[in-house]
């Protein structure tokens, strides 16, 4: 198996969350398989998540965001671990993406055209997503808005492909045994990255 450079982005603001435990388990599995891994915990970064002027004026990036762009450039495989809140990704994670997936870094519109160049080609991704909604309900009733947002309108838009999604839930009523099973699955995902 080819060894990869993997960037794990923990999108839950709390280091005490089940998402954080999933990240730890994934990283442990990936490192055991010989992959090189970096971790970005969004809750520990210092940055303004608000894109104050849209893309009309690019805000100066804080040092943590410059480091995050460097890590994304380095990575061959991106792993986003986050909860679904109100059907979508957490606000902190959305702000992170708004601030660093910028024109000229993640994509570039062609002059006088609606078409664009995908600047993050050559990378794959895996989304490990927790939710309190049963995954089948999120898929068939809600039509997976948060998954589609990350996969189609963010990552694939920027050239990241393939994007795999694994859903864990419902977290709220899960047993200790179920959570341990999910942690083992995250470890296996890391080993097979």
CATH topology: Rossmann fold
Into how many domains do the coordinates divide? 1
Named at the architecture level, the CATH assignment is 3-Layer(aba) Sandwich
User: Taking Cα atoms only, what radius of gyration do you get, to the nearest Å?
Assistant: 17 Å
> Which structural category do the helix and sheet elements fall into?
alpha/beta
Number of strands: 7
Task: Give a written overview of the molecule.
- One of its GO terms (cellular component) is cytosol.
- GO terms for molecular function: NAD(P)H dehydrogenase (quinone) activity.
- Belongs to the NAD(P)H dehydrogenase (quinone) family.
- Residues 4-181 form the Flavodoxin-like fold domain.
- With 193 residues, this protein is of the alpha/beta class.
- It has one domain (5-191): Rossmann fold (3-Layer(aba) Sandwich).
- It is built from 6 helices and 7 strands.
- The chain has helices at 18-32, 63-74, 91-100, 135-140, 145-155, 176-191; strands at 5-10, 36-41, 77-83, 107-109, 116-118, 124-130, 163-168.
- The protein has a 5-stranded parallel sheet with strand order 2-1-3-6-7, with helices on both faces.
- Helix 1 (18-32) runs parallel beside helix 6.
- The longest helix has 16 residues, at 176-191.
- The radius of gyration is 17 Å and the shape is globular.
- The relative contact order is 0.19.
